[in-house]
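Margin note: ligand = S-adenosyl-L-homocysteine.
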Amino acid sequence: MSYFLSDKPLQTEEIIELTGDEARHILLSRRMEVGEIIEIQGPDQKRFNAEVVLVDRKSLSIQALEEIPTPKESPLSITIFQALIKEQPLDFIIQKSTELGVDKLFLFNSENSIERFKEIEKKLDRWRKIGEEAAKQSGRVRAVSIEYIDDPKDIYKLASELDHIFLLEPLTKDRFSTWELSSQVNKIGILVGPEGGFTEEEVVEFSKIKNVIPISMGPRILRADTAAITSSAIVQALWGDV
Ligand code: SAH
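Resulting structure:
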């Protein structure tokens, strides 16, 4: 079930006042009335059933009733490395990857990335907010974490911490289903190109990553966002908890 966020940790029976953006959000999204029960999660990721005890114009007070369990995170940690693409499909990737239980999203500039985002910090704030909303909607305890990689070479370093990294390339012959991964595999990466695809040089460079596995998802060219989301669903279904 969807939940709301409190910036203060909650404790059974404690009454807290919610103000600011989240209070506004709660008041706008539902016609809240005293006595109503909502799910609310604190910064410590503990979630409670809480009763609305006071409703004001811009704030509301709730009383935490009992702590409730949160859905388990997938045993498979999925990291998407996404070449920068237009904002709208990127927003979509953030939303859907959060719903699908993706662990991390790293964004980087590739040769064919047409977007050159200025003020990346501001963008990151916005993207993280989108992730947070998706987590709240889906009941997942947290959003996909989002970082920007300034130097694509950092991908090598990050990839070395993973068991495998799948390089998504339409022209490759291997498919995800070709791979029988050992049951010890629990950290995988997925490398997704921009709308214009990776250049030949980039494919050569990325193919040098020690634990890389080039993969195709069939003879049709998918949009970058479709590729990122579909591959996440596939690996989650093959080796995760979907
Ligand atoms: N114009 C590019 C396609 C880019 S699609 C071209 O013709 O190659 C954007 C990215 O999505 C690609 O770089 C790749 O990483 C991924 N992708 C799209 N379709 C795919 C497929 N069928 N299999 C594997 N990856 C795919």
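Residues 168-170, 192-193, 195-198, 216-218, 220-222, 224, 227 surround S-adenosyl-L-homocysteine (CB under 6 Å).
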